[in-house]
Recover the amino acids of this structure.
């Protein structure tokens, strides 16, 4: 019997990471999920990550505590208001300093320890909030780093940083979740959760999610506290 390859999926609990987990499973990988509890204010996404991991049927799911609120510098980890006036041109205050660099480094360590050579991350360069660590150049540079920084790379192994949603719109991603048979209602996108387990409806992430479903022309399973 052929042994299935292993893949590490950075599973935040959001729609994008849920679709990445489904795509990794569809590609035939044994999925090992890594969720970072970075003391984000939208901690409800940790519960979403657990639900998604169970539904996808991951081989294991590591929830790693890493309190980035000690550093601060972001509306997601600090006592800073989450903007509600729409996506602008500047990098927003919801950017967490070097988050994807830190998270991919942890995924790389997890991959090397598990013997995995594929890492999946749900970054997107089209429908995103202007974060520099979501760009294709960043993913390409980190893949080169992965070879230089590891024992496996030094021995001739190659790590693949898979960003399958990189060129998708949020509408494309919503449709992909539907195609994969994943219940998007399990996922969590909101930066500023409203009481009762509702998405606020007005933060950047809620606006992008809602617009994506409208453009896709399919029902949005998300419960919002307010319309943007």
């Amino acid at each position: 019997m052929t042994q299935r390859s292993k893949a590490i999926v950075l599973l935040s609990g959001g729609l994008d990471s849920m679709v990445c987990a489904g795509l990794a499973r569809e590609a035939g990988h044994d999925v090992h999920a890594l969720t970072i509890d970075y003391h984000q204010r939208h901690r409800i996404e940790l519960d979403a990550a657990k639900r998604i991991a169970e539904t996808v049927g991951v081989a294991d799911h590591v929830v790693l505590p890493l309190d980035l609120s000690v550093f601060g510098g972001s509306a997601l980890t600090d006592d800073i208001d989450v903007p509600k006036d729409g996506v602008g041109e500047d990098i927003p205050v919801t950017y967490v300093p070097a988050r994807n660099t830190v998270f991919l480094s942890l995924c790389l360590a997890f991959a090397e320890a598990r013997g995995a050579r594929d890492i999946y991350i749900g970054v997107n360069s089209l429908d995103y909030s202007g974060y520099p660590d979501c760009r294709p150049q960043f993913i390409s540079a980190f893949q080169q780093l992965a070879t230089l920084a590891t024992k496996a790379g030094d021995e001739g192994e190659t790590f693949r940083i898979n960003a399958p949603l990189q060129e998708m719109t949020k509408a494309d991603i919503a449709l992909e979740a539907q195609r994969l048979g994943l219940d998007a209602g399990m996922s969590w996108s909101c930066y500023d959760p409203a009481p009762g387990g509702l998405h606020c409806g007005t933060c950047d992430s809620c606006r992008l999610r809602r617009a994506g479903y409208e453009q896709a022309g399919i029902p949005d399973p998300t419960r919002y506290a307010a319309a943007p």
In short: The chain has one domain: 6-189.
